[in-house]
Amino acid sequence: MKRIPTLVILVFAPLLMAAIWLDKQPSHKSYQAPVLAPPATAVPVEGKEIISPDSVPKNPVPQSMKSVAEGAKLFDINCAMCHGLTSAERGPVGKKLNPPPPGLDQNMMKGLSDSDIFKAITFGFGRMPQFNDKLSPDERWNLVNFLKKGRL
Prior knowledge:
Elements: H1 3-23, H2 65-78, H3 80-83, H4 106-110, H5 114-123, H6 137-149
């Protein structure tokens, strides 16, 4: 008779310990992402990017092959669905818009400054959404470098 309670305790003790351990985790609610503690040497950064529609920012990212390649990836993910992979044909979303978005060919891009393209990506215009909350400033500058030099 004494063996059954001892056996039950031995079987359920690890489960109880696991339950206690799980409660002390940073995230214990279902479908909640784990909360990671920042590294001890991390410096907190707060605030937003300071750029206004009237400013004329200079491109801090040199137009290198790496920057253009990164811009090409970002274009394929964020822009091609409307503007198309080439300037000759719009993307699947762009075909449904009336009027369709412009093709981003080299002649059009040569007439615009880096700052103009960056601000168009950052703030959007017309039906084009703003990307300041979706892409970092460096990613937007990589897109500028791609559009100025890329495959379109």
